[in-house]
Design goal:
Number of strands: 2
Distance between the termini: 23 Å
Number of helices: 12
Strand content: under 5%
CATH architecture of the largest domain: Up-down Bundle
Number of domains: 2
CATH class of the largest domain: Mainly Alpha
CATH topology of the largest domain: Four Helix Bundle (Hemerythrin (Met), subunit A)
Shape: elongated
Largest sheet: 2 strands, antiparallel
CATH superfamily of the largest domain: GntR ligand-binding domain-like
Strand order of the largest sheet: 1-2
Structural class: mainly alpha
């Protein structure tokens, strides 16, 4: 679940692991994100985990190293592998965000996330209006059209919306904003998930005028108008994201 679009694809159901290594990473990562493996607890020993997941010691060790690199666990000699608190997790990592998404983020997490999303997306909109290339503008228009055409299909619609935002990030010419695509994708998914839960069957029209205004502002090189249109989009999404029922943090 590390490539762009992988978070969107979870809207249609959990994605199967590609191999034993990714299977162990996903199972342990999700157990930690959901709180089933509590913060501060020690993971079972190698023999128990090898038996539970049906993998070799080599596969298990590599999986645990990956989880350690993502900040979820820490291995200590004579102690074992301990689950770290969320403030140590790499929350810019697409897999980590995917596990949080699947386990159900709590309200405090979502509130913090929308604060960050506002900062990233507003800056992105303004810079994209200043710096976009002709090709990036063409792709922006293409994905705006795809949003409308796939309005009744949740996953294709969400992918089109994510690509629209991803192109904006690319258009900023800022490597840090370009690298924020996982957060951007997480925002799109969190905005559409409660709409699905509410039974919506059409997803485009609610924000269509704002997306059109945003595409037009970027095309005309008008940063203030681009930020204003993005603000309207974010405000609508925020109402859905923060009104969605979420479990308390484990």
């Amino acid at each position: 679940m590390s490539e762009p679009g992988s978070l969107v694809r979870t809207l249609s159901g959990r994605q199967s692991a590609k191999n034993y290594h990714s299977y162990v990473i996903t199972e342990v990562g999700l157990a930690i994100a959901s709180g089933r493996q509590a913060v501060g607890s020690i993971l079972p020993n190698d023999a128990e985990m090898m038996d539970a997941y049906g993998v070799s010691r080599t596969v298990l060790r590599e999986a645990l190293k990956t989880l350690e690199a993502k900040g979820l666990v820490e291995a200590r000699a004579k102690v074992g592998t301990r689950v770290l608190p969320r403030n140590r997790w790499n929350l810019f990592d697409r897999q980590v965000l995917g596990w949080i998404q699947e386990s159900g983020p709590d309200t405090a997490f979502l509130t913090s996330f929308v604060e960050l999303r506002d900062t990233i997306e507003l800056q992105t909109a303004g810079l994209a209006a200043q710096r976009r290339s002709a090709e990036q503008l063409r792709m922006l228009v293409y994905w705006q059209n795809q949003r409308s055409q796939s309005a009744t299909m949740p996953e294709p619609y969400a992918l089109a919306e994510f690509e629209f935002h991803r192109i904006l990030c690319e258009a900023t010419q800022n490597p840090f904003l370009r690298a924020a695509s996982a957060l951007v994708e997480f925002g799109v998914v969190q905005a559409i998930a409660p709409r699905l839960t509410a039974g919506l069957t059409e997803f485009s029209s609610e924000k269509e005028p704002h997306y059109q205004a945003l595409a037009d502002a970027v095309g005309h090189g008008d940063p203030p108008a681009a930020r204003a249109a993005m603000t309207a989009i974010l405000e609508q999404d925020k109402r859905w994201i923060l009104s969605a029922p979420a479990p308390d943090a484990a």
